[in-house]
Amino acid sequence: xxxxxxxxxxxxxxALPVQWVQRPQLSARLDQGLALQRKMTLVSAPAGFGKxxxxxxxxxxRVDRPLAWLSLEPADDDPARFFTYLVAALQRVDARLxxxxxxxxxxxxxxxxxxxxxxxxxxxxxxxxxxLVLDDFHVIxxxxxxxxxxxxxxxxxxxxxxxxxxxxxxxLPLARLRANNALxxxxxxxxxxxxxxxxxxxxxxxxxxxxxxxxxxLEMKTExxxxxxxxxxxxxQTAPDAGEPALVSRFIAALSGSHRFILSYxxxxxxxQQPENVQRFLLQTAILDKLTGDLGDAVTGRSGSQALLExxxxxxxxxxxxxxxxxxxxxxxxxxxxxxxxxGALDEDEIAELHRRASR
Length: 360
Hints:
The protein is α/β, with parallel strands linked by helices. It contains 18 helices and seven strands. The strands form two sheets. The protein has a five-stranded parallel β-sheet, with helices on both faces. Strands 6-7 form a two-stranded antiparallel ribbon. Strand 6 (about 320) and strand 7 form a beta hairpin. It is globular. The termini are far apart.
């Protein structure tokens, strides 16, 4: 892949919206990771939780280190393409970073994984302190890429702070980093908007004039999911009776995951991204208010539901753990609404059988 073929926009930290909700508590947590010289920051949450905005606002306002940024897409799940872009991102910080790898890649060859890892670590160790951000890291599934990055993460020099933004936890040695106090984590529970954040977002950023009761109701409906609040605000802006307080309250009370805006977002960004067997499991278990592995097996007529639930939870697929043991789970309310809406498209006899199995 030639340098002239690279999209320069993938190498820039995204610009912030004209208006956004400033969240100093999150920036303070990210600051702490740098101050404690932790190796890595992991920002992991489902789609629409403001992960990229969280990191970008922190970098724009609080970090004075040079920045290497790479926005990933599915096509980058190819070793030659990924490392070509990675070297290009690093060389925005220092032209010496990865220059040897870059030359081999430009010649149409892929260096051995151990050579790539050693070069990236050694070159970075000789540089001034900087931050490397890999956005949408969940699109990377290639084993060669992940093995190289695992070696790099295990040997990160103190000058390099790695930030991964992802919809699911990567197969990297997170437990080891966590045990060594080398990992800062920002999760969905940290990114959720509380009532104060929601009020700022809905009334100041989105230009609505909602009452405290309406804001609280929306916050409960969306469970602080930022994209859900934005889609709800857009729906209110386009509602024909948006100026009538009583009708606004009624609209909020009736809001569900089957609203066309929310339905489209969750379908395109979440449900349709899953393999067919996962989609079927989600639809079949949507009849349950809460579920365990055993209950999932009983309803779906298959085995392995506990392992799948644990995978869904690690993948941040709008699944909420109800206990510390990881036995009981439930779906995010709006996601459950979507699943039940889609479930209605199945054969009536099949739906009835799912309920019979759940009852038994």
